[in-house]
């Protein structure tokens, strides 16, 4: 039974895994036996991440690559293939958010979020699918969001992108399932990472950020998630244990989507 969750001999590429959710997922995949490669935009972040991976005894390899640059992505996939073999597991994790009221958001800002959060997973998936087809199978996991299902103020671009990513996930599953390729999504709830740090900042008087209290009231488990909460789910979706799971978005949200929220 344990072997069903083994990733021994697999090459896994996690986009945007210098820190945050991506780092935790890369760690999980490595601990399950995969050879992990990752990318980010910043040399500083790469160097810091490599130190942390080494400190944890993880044999990860990092590259500088902006996931929106299709030429760079294609070269990265080729370089990974030459050194570590074809990519058998792709985690489309890299992502940004801009919290701006929609009528104040510049169109360029909207497009930047969509480029990274939706177009880039299309680019990366397109780059790895041909080898997955040749290999007789593969795993693509797209990191979706609560905003794949729900909206809220100031996150129009992000919600549009993550909603689109949910449907891109289902479409890749539909179009390439016949090649034994499984494409699923992971939908984290509210996770304590640099991306959500502004929503958890203590107030001047030392009290909790109102949004922090709001999320804990909306979560049956009454806490923010941690990147570690995603480690088991990503190994499941990357492993043979999920070979007949396809087009599914696995929400790892502590129950937010199931719950109306605590009475104020
Ligand atoms: P984070 O802490 O901001 O980390 C984002 C990572 O992506 C960093 O490694 C960043 O490194 C990289 N990145 C950003 N843009 C990139 C680009 N254009 N090319 C390559 N790498 C890029 O975010 P997180 O909270 O870990 O979130 C990771 C994913 O989970 C995102 O897709 C996010 O939307 C999603 N998510 C987050 C939460 C949450 O509550 N935190 C919940 C649901 C979904 P560089 O800056 O060095 O490029
Ligand atoms: C926000 C948060 C969320 C989380 C996550 C929730 O401003 O509402 O950043 O979008 O990042 O996507 O699942």
> Structural class, from helix and strand content?
alpha/beta
The CATH homologous superfamily is termed NAD(P)-binding Rossmann-like Domain
**Small molecules held by this entry:** NADP nicotinamide-adenine-dinucleotide phosphate, D-gluconic acid
List segments where confidence is low: pLDDT < 50 over at least 5 consecutive residues.
none
**CATH fold naming:** Rossmann fold
Q: Give helix % range.
A: 40-55%
Please tell me what the overall shape is.
globular
- Percent in strands: 5-15%
CATH class: Alpha Beta
Q: SSE string, helix = H, strand = E?
A: EHEHEHEHEHEHHE
Q: What is the terminal separation in angstroms?
A: 45 Å
Number of helices: 7
**CATH architecture assignment:** 3-Layer(aba) Sandwich
Features of the shown structure:
single chain; alpha/beta; Rossmann fold; 7 strands; 41% helix; 14% strand; binds NADP nicotinamide-adenine-dinucleotide phosphate; binds D-gluconic acid
What does this structure look like?
- This protein has one domain (2-191, 226-257): 3-Layer(aba) Sandwich (Rossmann fold).
- 41% of the residues lie in helices and 14% in strands.
- It has helices spanning 20-31, 43-55, 70-84, 107-135, 156-176, 210-218, 231-238, and strands spanning 11-15, 35-40, 61-64, 89-92, 138-143, 181-188, 249-252.
- The longest helix is centred in the middle third of the chain and has 29 residues, at 107-135.
- It is globular.
């Amino acid at each position: 039974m344990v072997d069903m969750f083994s990733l021994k001999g697999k090459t896994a590429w996690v986009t945007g895994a210098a820190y945050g959710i991506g780092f935790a997922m890369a760690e999980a995949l490595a601990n399950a036996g995969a050879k992990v490669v990752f990318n980010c935009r910043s040399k500083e972040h790469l160097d810091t991440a490599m130190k942390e991976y080494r400190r944890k005894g993880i044999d990860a390899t990092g590259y500088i690559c902006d996931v929106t640059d299709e030429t760079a992505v294609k070269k990265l996939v080729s370089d990974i293939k030459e050194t570590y073999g074809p990519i058998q597991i792709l985690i489309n994790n890299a992502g940004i958010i801009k919290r701006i009221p929609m009528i104040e958001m510049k169109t360029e800002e909207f497009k930047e979020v969509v480029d990274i959060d939706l177009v880039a997973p299309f680019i990366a998936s397109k780059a790895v699918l041909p080898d997955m087809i040749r290999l007789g199978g593969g795993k693509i996991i797209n990191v979706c969001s609560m905003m794949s299902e729900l909206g809220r103020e100031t996150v129009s671009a992000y919600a549009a992108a993550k909603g689109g990513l949910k449907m891109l996930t289902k479409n890749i599953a539909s179009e390439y399932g016949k090649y034994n390729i499984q494409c699923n999504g992971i939908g984290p709830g509210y996770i304590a990472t640099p991306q959500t740090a502004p929503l958890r900042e203590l107030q001047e008087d030392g009290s909790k950020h109102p949004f922090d209290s709001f999320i804990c009231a909306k979560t049956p488990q009454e806490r923010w998630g941690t990147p570690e909460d995603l480690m088991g789910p990503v190994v499941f979706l990357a492993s043979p244990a999920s070979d007949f799971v396809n087009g599914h978005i696995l929400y790892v949200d502590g129950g937010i989507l199931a719950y109306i929220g605590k009475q104020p």
